[in-house]
Design a protein that fits this description.
With 172 residues, the chain is α/β, with parallel strands linked by helices. Helix content is 16%, strand content 34%. The protein has helices spanning 46-50, 77-81, 103-109, 122-131, and strands spanning 2-8, 11-18, 34-41, 55-61, 65-68, 72-75, 87-90, 94-97, 110-113, 117-119, 132-133, 137-139. The strands form three sheets. The protein has a four-stranded mixed beta sheet, with no helix packed on it.
């Protein structure tokens, strides 16, 4: 269980709460927790979490381990083998899925949310679309002329009249 907390005049309040399935036994120790932000937990723990009488700002269901706020990440079979309950990838700028990861493994073990760009094979694309929320782009990496080892990920050139923003929310 991972907590991010602050003390207030009303007592302890948590900004966020993450509970992994292997820490389910810790839920019985919580008594009416107050979480101002988001609670991250596997769907299988929802009933036990509700019994705590928690007050919370938001709820996000996750699979297995959670990887958050990564600029770039590669999803491969080694990562999935190390996470038998699955992997949740939240807030990743660029996610590359290795071509030897089967669509079935993606459907059963992966959840993505708020990823800017997800690069995958055409065979994986439908599975990735089903397990993803708020993805900017899901598809095949196009071969582009460039230096050797180039990722194919290029930001548009900004000019006086054009500004590029990579954000979940942008208010002008």
């Amino acid at each position: 269980m991972r907590l991010c907390w602050k003390n207030t005049a009303q007592g302890s309040m948590w900004r966020a709460l993450s509970i992994a399935s292997q820490n389910a036994f810790l839920l019985s120790r919580l008594e009416k927790p107050r979480i101002t932000g988001t609670v991250y937990l596997p769907e299988s723990l929802m009933e036990a979490f509700c019994k705590t009488g928690a007050e919370y700002g938001g709820l996000q269901f996750v699979k297995g381990i959670t990887l958050k706020n990564k600029a770039m990440l590669t999803l491969d079979n080694a990562l999935l083998d190390a996470s038998p309950d699955g992997v949740s990838i939240l807030g990743c700028g660029l996610l590359r899925i290795q071509e030897n990861v089967s669509p079935d493994r993606i459907l059963n073990l992966v959840l993505t949310k708020n990823c800017g760009r997800i690069l995958c094979t055409p065979e994986q694309q439908s599975a990735v679309e089903l397990v993803s929320k708020n993805a900017g782009f899901i598809g095949e990496q196009k071969e582009e002329a460039g230096p050797e080892g180039d990722s194919g990920f290029h930001m548009p050139i900004e000019s006086e009249n054009i500004k590029t923003v990579n954000a979940k929310t942008y208010i002008l």
